[in-house]
Design brief:
With 260 residues, the protein is an alpha/beta fold. It is 45% helix and 22% strand. It has one domain: Vaccinia Virus protein VP39 (Rossmann fold), CATH 3.40.50. It has a seven-stranded mixed β-sheet with strand order 3-2-1-4-5-7-6, sandwiched between helices. The protein binds S-adenosylmethionine.
């Protein structure tokens, strides 16, 4: 199946996809990986958020039963609530664990996953080097890591972020929220011997606002197909300087652990 086939299948579902093209990019990559190797073990770090496991709904609909999902989140109440209503989200088993991404090697001393995913989590992680080191230990050699985050290139000017930054430096990072730039992440990924397969920019602000606020639910997937295709094309053709990077809200990464 081609990249376009996956996009067509995802946007043909009878419920609207997420309103974040970076997450759609992640869904396409996951669909490719699941097709290439049915039975994949996948770890989703930070799986709760406002809509627990919602990200997985399209993949449960298309490939339910063809991958084994484990989800962790430090929000223990959210994990318990999601466990209690798991049957309403999917008929497929999901292993849900209350835990922090900083503790992966303690949580999974004997297990390494084929794929690790974390969408919109890294902007809440102050010690990202430590977090990514844990991810590196917990993915199989040769395994894939997919993530999206708020881009640190986007010129947000939120005074609250500075306060949260000071609190994080004092060891209270619970409310931390600050995007990272690719020039901050790339050296860490290199040091860990991850190869960067893709680093792409998604979600131009006006398109995101128009799609999410002004398009009827029934039309959202048709608009998403065009919006995503346009932003994917930007990533194929733009030579990203700082001005170009600043137009996008979200960074997407696909990295691979070295095979040794
Ligand atoms: C914005 S939500 C994203 C939820 C989901 N991944 C999504 O894309 O819809 C951020 C999630 O990351 C979790 N989180 C924050 N810091 C974390 C950490 N250090 N390790 C694991 N999860 C974390 C939060 O509890 C929250 O559920």
């Amino acid at each position: 199946m081609t990249f376009d086939d996956h996009l067509a299948h995802l946007t043909a579902l009878d419920f609207p996809l997420t309103g974040n093209t970076g997450k759609v990019r992640t869904l396409i990559e996951l669909a490719r990986l699941i097709n290439a190797k049915p039975g994949l073990s996948i770890l989703d770090i930070g799986c709760i958020g406002p809509n627990p496991l919602d990200f997985w709904r399209p993949l449960f609909a298309l490939y339910g039963g063809q991958f084994q999902l484990t989800g962790i989140d430090p929000d223990a109440d959210g994990i318990a609530r999601t466990q209690a209503r798991l049957h309403a989200i999917t008929e497929h088993p999901v292993n849900l664990i209350a835990g922090n991404g900083y503790d992966l090697t303690r949580l999974f001393p004997d297990q390494q996953f084929d794929v690790i995913v974390f969408t919109q989590v890294l902007e809440h992680v102050f010690r990202y080097r430590e977090f990514l080191t844990q991810v590196h230990h917990t993915v199989q050699p040769g395994g894939d890591v997919l993530f999206t985050l708020d881009s640190g290139h986007y010129p947000h000017q939120r005074w609250q972020d500075s306060v949260k930054g000071i609190l994080a430096r004092l060891g209270r990072e619970h409310h931390y929220e600050h995007g990272w730039r690719d020039d901050e992440l790339n050296p860490v990924l290199n040091d860990l011997d991850f190869s960067v397969i893709s680093r792409e920019f998604y979600c131009t602000t006006p398109s995101k606002r128009l799609h999410n606020k002004y398009i009827d639910a029934a039309q959202k997937n048709d608009v998403m197909r065009l919006w995503f295709a346009q932003e994917y094309a930007y990533n194929q053709h733009i030579t990203f300087d700082e001005t170009a990077k600043r137009q996008f809200l979200i960074l997407f990464y696909h990295v691979q652990r070295a095979n040794h």
